[in-house]
Structure formats: structure tokens, C-alpha cells
Amino acid sequence: MRTRLLDGVVALSAAAGAGLEMILSLAPPNPGGLAGTLVEYFSYFTLDTNVLVALAMGWSALAPESGPGKFFSKPGVRTAITLYILLVALVYHFMLRDIWTPYGWAKVSNFILHYVTPVLMLCNWLLISRKDGLRLLQIPGWMTFPAIYAVLVLLRGQLTGIYPYGFLNVAEIGWGASLMNVAGMILGMGLAGCVMVVAARRLPHGPMGAMPAK
Fold it and tell me: DSSP state, 172?
């Protein structure tokens, strides 16, 4: 029960941040309409990842014995999602926070998305999440999500000229710099994954630690 409760806290945090951001995005004036707003909303890795955290942790909290609940509780899956949300926090803190200053409710959603949820997710992983059976060979598979995101964002940018982040803006910094930024972030995430796999051997395996990893 405690595990489900703590998973639920993370899910609620991610849902609150992502939901508030959606409400703000749909508020008038909204020249792009619903379809345009959704495309723009899901072009941000921050929002994609927070939605993923909300779904994964929510399923684990509400229906842990269901197929999705068991899937999102697997050590490899939970660790990968933790990596993604940590990337959100680190990239924002070190690369983006000085170039955008939100106000009002946007400041609230921004703080939840980039700080509260990542910290809660990391604490969840450190203290209660399963970490049995984690292997370094799993890390390339964990990089699939950010790699696919980068490909889709760059493709959309080529078609529309719109890029969600300046460090991916091919029109302004060129293909070389954009691809180097993508490679650097994926490499950094991979190195962080290595640290987590090694650290997992010394950390509690969580209340489900005795169960075999799948």
C-alpha cells in the first residue's frame, strides 16, 4: 500500500504540472486551435516525459497487477523513465532557465514540471522502486525514446521551421551543432544510466525486490 501511495504522489505531481500546462496552452488567444495546440504541446520533451511519468506511475498506483501496471514497475522501465525526467530537470536548470522567465500560473507549472516531479521520481527510484536485475546492456534500449523524439522534432522543424528548443534549431545553429547537442544529451543520459545501474547494486531493491526481473 505504501508503494502504491508513493507512486500515486509522483503521478499526481506529473499530472498536475502537465495538466496545468495544457490548460494554459488552450487558453485564449489560441490561434492554432485544438489541433495546433496539441502538436505544439507534445513537441516538448518536458511535457512528453511528464505525461509518461503520470501514466506510468498512475498505472502502477491504481492497477499494479494489470499488464501496464506490471510493465511500468519493471526495474528497467522504471529506471529509464527516471532517467528521462532527470534529463528534463538538468537540461532546464543548466541550459534553459535563464532564457525564459514564466509568470503567474505558468511559473507554477514550470516549477512542478522541471523540479518537483523530477525530485519526487528520483526519490521514488532511490527508496522504493525495484532495481533488481538492472544491466548495462539495457542502456542502449533506454535511449530509444529520446532518440525518436529528436528525430521527430528535427523532421517537424524541417517541414515547418518550428523548433521547440534553441539547441535543436537547425535554422539558427546548423545541422552540425544540433546533432552534436542531441548526441551529447543522449551520451550524457547513457552515462547517467551507467551510474544508476552501478548504484542500484548498493541501494534497496524496494518492497518488490525479491521478485524476479523480467
Answer: H
Which residues, 6+ apart, have CB-to-CB distance to 136 below 8 Å?
Answer: 194, 197
Q: What's the domain range around 27?
A: 2-200
Rg over alpha carbons for the chain, rounded to the nearest Å, is: 18
Q: What is the pTM of this model?
A: 0.90
Nearest-angstrom CA–CA distance, 153 and 109:
23
Does residue 32 have a pLDDT over 80?
Answer: no
Count of structural domains, the chain: 1
Q: What DSSP assignment string belongs to 87-152? A: HHHHHIIIIITTT----THHHHHHHIIIIIHHHHHHHHHHHTS--TT--GGGHHHHTHHHHHHHHH
Residues 162 and 178: their CA atoms lie apart, in Å, by 14
Is residue 94 domain-resident?
yes
Q: What is the mean pLDDT of residues 7-30?
A: 94
Quick one: CA dihedral 80, 8, 207, 126, positive or negative? Answer: positive
Q: Which three cell numbers stand for residue 85?
A: 525526467
Within-domain flag for 155: yes
